[in-house]
Amino acid sequence: MERLHTKSLLLDPLSRDDFPWLFALYADPVVMRYIGTGPRDEAAARANLEWFMAQSRHPPFGYWVLRERGTGDGVGGAMLMVRREGLPVELGFLLAQSAWGRGLATEAAAAVIAHALGTLQVPLIEAFIDVKNAASGAVLRKAGMRDQGLCPGPYGGTDRKFALTRDDWLAGREGA
Ligand SMILES: CC(C)(COP(=O)(O)OP(=O)(O)OC[C@H]1O[C@@H](n2cnc3c(N)ncnc32)[C@H](O)[C@@H]1OP(=O)(O)O)[C@@H](O)C(=O)NCCC(=O)NCCS
């Protein structure tokens, strides 16, 4: 897995050294309000992160911890995953509350999308958000993903789906 970077962030491949502060992030009920089944205890967060570490040896899987360039402090995570064999590659992200509102999620999402569609050449990337998660919708739109409307979500219930094809991403770059 490659290290990625943006104007403000370093995106480092997940390491177990990051587990303690990531556990705190996954336990925060505000951060987890719209993610899966909500806040996770340490055992559930550890199992999920271990799964990502194992799968990250097989691109397009990847989990990057987001660090502020200036301080090196960990502020969140961004991930690519294939939830079930045969499904498209899915993008996810989460940031500590202290890092919200500065454009960092948009920077991270755009970098991971470019990595997936550009470097890894996947044909399509998708993201699913809770219908009430307006901030994530704004992030995905700003990162170039297209709103596909409502659909059954990965955790049951109805989600809003976003998608971007490699062809559309390349066409957008040519037109920029
Ligand atoms: C969603 C989240 C990643 C956004 O991170 P962030 O770094 O604050 O995002 P950005 O600053 O890049 O952009 C946020 C955008 O959402 C907008 N926004 C924020 N809160 C909003 C709200 N309640 N309603 C509508 N828009 C909102 C901001 O105005 C901004 O858009 P703008 O630049 O056009 O003004 C962060 O809040 C988070 O980690 N939330 C919890 C985890 C989560 O829900 N992850 C997504 C699951 S797919």
Explain how this protein is built:
The chain contains 5 helices and 8 strands. The mean pLDDT is 96. Helix content is 33%, strand content 29%. The chain has 176 residues and is α+β, with helices and mostly antiparallel strands. Strands 1-2-3-4-5-6-8-7 form an 8-stranded mixed beta sheet, sandwiched between helices. It has one domain (4-175): Aminopeptidase. Helix 3 (104-119) crosses helix 4. It starts with a strand and ends with a helix. The structure holds coenzyme A.
Please state the second-level CATH architecture: 3-Layer(aba) Sandwich
Q: Give the CATH H-level superfamily.
A: Gcn5-related N-acetyltransferase (GNAT)
Largest sheet: 8 strands, mixed
**What is the average of the pLDDT values?**
96
How many helices in DSSP terms?
5
SS elements, strand count: 8
The ligands bound in this entry are:
coenzyme A
In helices, the fraction of residues equals 25-40%
Low-confidence stretches: none
Structural class: alpha+beta
In the CATH scheme, the class would be: Alpha Beta
User: Beta fraction of the residues?
Assistant: 25-35%
First-last Cα distance = 28 Å
Number of separate structural domains: 1
Instruction: Work out the radius of gyration.
Output: 15 Å
CATH topology: Aminopeptidase
Going across the major beta sheet, what is the strand order?
A: 1-2-3-4-5-6-8-7
Order of helices and strands: EEHHEEEHEHEEH
Shape: globular
Give a quick summary of the entry:
With 176 residues, this protein is of the alpha+beta class. The chain has helices spanning 19-27, 42-55, 104-119, 134-142, 166-175; strands at 4-5, 9-13, 62-68, 74-81, 89-95, 124-130, 146-152, 158-165.
